Structures are given as structure tokens and as C-alpha cells.
Amino acid sequence: MASPHPRLSRRHLILSASALAGLHGLPAGAAALLPTPRQTTGPFYPLELPLDADNDLVQIAGRAEHAAGTIMHLGGRVLDPDGRQVRGARLEIWQCDAFGVYHHPRDPRGPADPNFQGFGSTAVADDGAWRFRTIEPVPYPGRTPHIHFRILGPGFEPLVTQMYIAGHPLNERDFLYQRLGERASLVTVALEPAPDLEPQSKSGAKRGMFDIVLGPNGVPRDS
Questions:
Q1: How far is it, in rounded angstroms, from Cα 50 to Cα 143?
Q2: Cβ–Cβ < 8 Å for 14, 192
Q3: What's the longest Cα–Cα distance across the chain?
């Protein structure tokens, strides 16, 4: 995996096994894991990727201020249906800022927070693990809080999906979330406080675990 961003300490960026204990819902070696469902890319995938497109969306290179919002440390693994790690993959995420605005020229609610990266990418480690430092997603008109994911790699079709926050009241009214039915649990993540990861954060910090399971033979599928 790529080295942690030089602006972050290991304690800030590397989510240790102990820090995430109890959040991992898909243990390695489990059989017949259900594939992560596909969802739409949406209208706000960046037309141009930012110059700083690493896995820390909270701090942009060359800017002194952090992004507005609650900092969230998000980690997980990319697995096959048998619980084995998938190597050589790359993850991308994109989301709106703390005010519900995307870094995209077609978002009429702009401009977006200049201190929020809005898009990030990271390589998947040999054990299938990945991590991002971002902000807790917020709602905007018509959508419950979510983060878009794209998983790319050799030997399988790219998978686009969305991640949601467990217990958010707007989940019940979000048409894309509700369309998943019972599969919604596969893209719903519980968050917990993580003051140890961001002791200087005035709004506190959170962490969560989101495992992504590719379909049989490494090809994602819808059902």
C-alpha cells in the first residue's frame, strides 16, 4: 500500500486492528459472503480529478485549514465471496462537503468548501485493507448521507456502489437506499466515536468499517 500521507501521523491515518475491533462484520475466511450491490455513479463524479487526490480528504496540500465537518476515519477490506483478500485493487471515493455541496460545476448549490478535497483514492494493501480520512457524510436535498465508492483492479469489472450510515432517519425516505431492500445492510455502516484518532478535533471524530465483497470469479454482480 502507498505510504501514509506525509502530513499525517501514523496514529491519525493507520487504523489499527485494535482501533477497529468489533466493527469488522466480515471475517476473513467466511464462506459465501454476499457481494456488495452495485449502485449508480451519480451526476457528480469529478470532471477533473483534484491535484491532491490522496486518501486524506480533510487536509488539502498547501492549505492551512481543515475541511468543515466531523472527521471520520473509514477503513475496510476488499474481499472475494470466500473471504479472501483481493490484491491489486484501487479505491476511489467522492462525496459532498459538510454543507451538502459537491466539487462539481453542475452542482447548483456551490461553491464547495475549498478546504475539502471531495475526492480521494488509495491502493488496496496485500491483505485487502484500505483506509480513508474524510468527513462524516451529510444529507442534501433528495438524498440521505452517503459516500460514493468505485473499486478498480485487474481481472474484474469496476464496481460502483454507495455507503450509508446506520440509523440515519433519512435512510427510510431515500429511493436508492430503499430500492436495495434486504441488501441495504451490505452497504450500511455503523459509526462510533473515535476521540483517540483526532484528539484536537472540536467536533469529535468518528470511525467505521466497510468491507467490499466482489462477486464470484472476481466479477461484481447486482444480485
A1: 24
A2: no
A3: 46
What does the alpha-carbon distance between residue 223 and residue 215 come to, in Å, rounded to a whole number? Answer: 9
* CA 157 to chain centroid: 19
Question: Where do runs of H (alpha helix) occur along the chain?
Answer: 10-13, 175-179
Q: What pLDDT score does 216 carry?
A: 72
Structural domains in the chain plus CATH codes: 10-215 (2.60.130.10)
3 state SS of 175: helix
CA 155, CA 51: separation in Å to the nearest integer?
A: 28
How far apart, in whole angstroms, are the C-alpha atoms of residue 158 and residue 16? 28
Taking the C-alpha atoms of residue 143 and residue 162, their distance in angstroms, rounded to an integer, is 12
What percentage of the chain reaches a pLDDT higher than 70? 83
Q: What is the mean pLDDT of the chain?
A: 85
Q: What is the pLDDT of residue 212?
A: 97
State the pTM of this model: 0.84
Q: What is the pLDDT of residue 199?
A: 87
